[in-house]
Amino acid sequence: MADDRLSVIFAALADPTRRAILARLVEGDATVTELAEPFAISLPAISRHLKVLEQAGLITRSRSAQWRSSSLNPEPLREATAWMERYRQFWDTNFDRLDAHLKRMRTQTEQNEK
């Protein structure tokens, strides 16, 4: 696997469990136990998902006494969004051109029917 930053971020985001964990962390910091609640998987499995998210920079983990909480780090998501933005603009332009073409075809069809 490539070790460039975007590849690591997208690999972490590829898993639906990790995306669900990030969605939960939007609401605020949470412990491993709190993050595991909605899933039918073990705490060690959740911990492995958290490790992947932490390595991608998507979360930070802190320890306070015996509690270890995780929090969302939005910066890598901004990087991924910025990278995807170029392609959104490309598709928007192509959809606009397709829309214009379909309108021309519809107009020509309507004129031919008269």
UniProtKB/TrEMBL annotation:
UniProt feature coiled coil, ranges: none
Domain of life the protein comes from: Bacteria
Gene3D superfamilies xrefs: Winged helix-like DNA-binding domain superfamily/Winged helix DNA-binding domain (1.10.10.10)
SUPFAM superfamilies, A to Z: Winged helix' DNA-binding domain
Domain HTH arsR-type: 1-92
Name of the protein this chain belongs to: Metalloregulator ArsR/SmtB family transcription factor
Lineage of source species: Bacteria, Bacillati, Actinomycetota, Actinomycetes, Micromonosporales
